[in-house]
Prior knowledge:
Elements: H1 3-16, H2 25-38, E1 41-44, E2 51-56, E3 61-67, E4 71-75, E5 78-82, H3 87-101, E6 109-115, H4 123-129, E7 136-146, E8 155-156, E9 159-160, E10 163-172, E11 176-177, H5 187-198, E12 209-218, E13 225-226, E14 229-238, H6 241-262, E15 265-274, H7 281-295, E16 304-305, H8 314-318, E17 323-333, H9 348-361
Parallel strand pairs: 3-6, 3-7, 7-17, 9-16
Antiparallel strand pairs: 1-2, 2-6, 4-5, 8-17, 10-14, 10-15, 11-13, 12-14
Helix pairs in contact: 1-3, 3-9, 5-6, 7-9
Amino acid sequence: MDIEQQIREYFNHFHTHPEVSWKEVETTKKLAAIMTELGVEYHTFPDVTGLIAEIGNGPEVVAIRADIDALWQEVDGKLQANHSCGHDANMAMVLGALLHLKDETLTKRVRFIFQPAEELGNGSLSMIERGAIDGVSHLYGVHLRPIEELPFGQVAPALHHGSGIFLRGKITGVDAHGARPHQGKNAIDVLAAIHQFVKSIYFSPFESYSAKLTHIQTGGDSLNIIPGSAHFAMDVRSQSNGLMKELQQKIADGLEAIAKLHDVGISYKWTDYTPAAEVSETAMQIADAAIRQTLGDEATAPPVHTTGADDFHFYTIKKPELHAAMIGIGADLTPGLHHPDMRFNHEALAIGARVLANIVRQ
């Protein structure tokens, strides 16, 4: 079986065996089995999923990272794990780079980081704590891009992701009989006020940002009870880490004002923060040269600025001297990332693997 066929086989396996964040047990076992079959040294961890493998010899360490978790979402009416963010493709491309490199004489060590829980925004921290980037000078990630960002055949040397964070909150009001609304404090009224408030937040349009309710839960089966309590969540994003701080403060001030206006309690916590990209110019230039050498100038796209977030950027936040960049792979991906029916041109997998291998060679 040639390398391209093997990459497809890896992808098909991971695509049909998705596992959500921190539960990538069988995925980790499969990665370990692949390393054993290839004769590649690796280690796993007793307390978290994920795997780190290494090939080559020398004082320098260059690393490539793949995220391994899937999303939990409704697909054709059924809630299930689903690789609609393309992490199955990311694993296949990184494994393909390993196949290209494993029999070469390398003057450096190449580390392959298969990281759990990217979708929760903190899996990279678990790998950092367990030494994944100890001694690493350069780190690269890889991700498929939606068609509106990159068409098939185009590869970008860096992705400038934005910052993202979730807010999880609770409203504590007073239940009331449906016939006596004046005796209660209706949590649905408060939810409506929060919804309207976040839609009226404005900053400069020259830097992208958004805040939106993504979850609300209130009331029971009795329709004659006005619910006093509710749970809600927000997805909050900005293109920079500085604007994210301003956005969080604006939301905090607004929730405090809404609580006073409706005379209810609103408690909340921020969770699963993902920083905006801190892209190394050195890493990006190396990637750009490798893409041009692999595919030609016409296939080399400029860096992509995207509103999505990725916990890959914790690696450089925690180790500022690290030269890191994430490679964007054009794949005619539609209808979009995280869509349950996401699809793409599978020929992009071999392209991504070749580019990653050539970046390491550079």
